[in-house]
Amino acid sequence: MSLEQPVVLVVEDELAQREVLAYNLQAEGYRVLKAENGEEGLLLVEEEMPDVIMLDWMLPNVSGIEVCRRLKTKVETRNVPVIMLSARSEEIDRVRGLETGADDYVIKPYSVAELMARVKTQLRRVRPSTIGQILEYEDITLDSETHKVFRDKQPLKLGPTEFRLLATFMEKPGRVWSREQLLDRVWGRDIYVDTRTVDVHIGRLRKALATVGGTDPLRTVRGAGYALG
């Protein structure tokens, strides 16, 4: 019943550093995408939206700063947290990195344990359900660690897919998710599922949420998808 693994993209041109980061991120339970330069990193983001990006400043051709600037100027990627990794320890460089839109700035050489903690901090902001947090929306409470859901303090019975759907909606109330986005987040990219399957499970989730009364919190947005609230 586990939620889809958080995806971390590592953009680092030094092979040894890239592999150390990937190994430690995988040990934390994340799925890792790896790029050795800025162009490759930007292509990977287009192919599969990561939850967090670790980005080296000193990259060949397109610098990390430029990659960060491009990501933060696009509507689709501006909210993806970027952790900038840099050997530049001067305050002016740190300020420049943050002003370009980096969400965090880590100076090399770094402590891997500290870096993993910083990834978790960013995930807590964008995907709290994956790190065992309790989510609340109006009278609905979802405990992602114990996999229990309550509405008006009464327990609800949800299947694994309905649980993952609800967690996705509760992480970003008000956001409209297309069927394709829900398929990627809830079922995973590697599994072929028809988009109509999403409608079936949304129907089941609505039914489960209605068992203790209350209004339907899910909204169908014609031609776009679904949203919570």
Q: What is the CATH topology descriptor of the largest domain? A: Rossmann fold
Beta fraction:
15-25%
Main beta-sheet annotation = 5 strands, parallel
Which bin fits the share of residues in helices? 40-55%
Order of helices and strands: EHEHEHEHEHEEEEHHHEE
Strand order of the largest sheet: 2-1-3-4-5
CATH-scheme architecture of the largest domain: 3-Layer(aba) Sandwich
The pLDDT mean sits at 89
Quickly count the domains: 2
Instruction: Count all strands and give the number.
Output: 11
What is the general shape?
elongated
Q: Rg, please?
A: 19 Å
CATH superfamily of the largest domain: Response regulator
Based on secondary structure, the structural category is alpha/beta
Tell me what the structure shows:
With 229 residues, the chain is of the alpha/beta class. It folds into 2 domains: 7-126, 3-Layer(aba) Sandwich (Rossmann fold); 130-228, Winged helix-like DNA-binding domain superfamily/Winged helix DNA-binding domain (Arc Repressor Mutant, subunit A). 41% of the residues lie in helices and 21% in strands. It contains 8 helices and 11 strands. The protein has helices at residues 15-27, 38-47, 64-73, 91-99, 112-126, 160-171, 179-187, 195-209; strands spanning 7-11, 31-35, 52-56, 82-86, 104-107, 134-137, 140-143, 148-151, 154-156, 218-221, 225-228. It has a 5-stranded parallel sheet with strand order 2-1-3-4-5, sandwiched between helices. Strands 6-7-8-9 form a 4-stranded antiparallel sheet, with helices on one face. Strand 6 (134-137) and strand 7 form a beta hairpin. The protein starts with 6 loop residues before the first strand and ends with a strand.
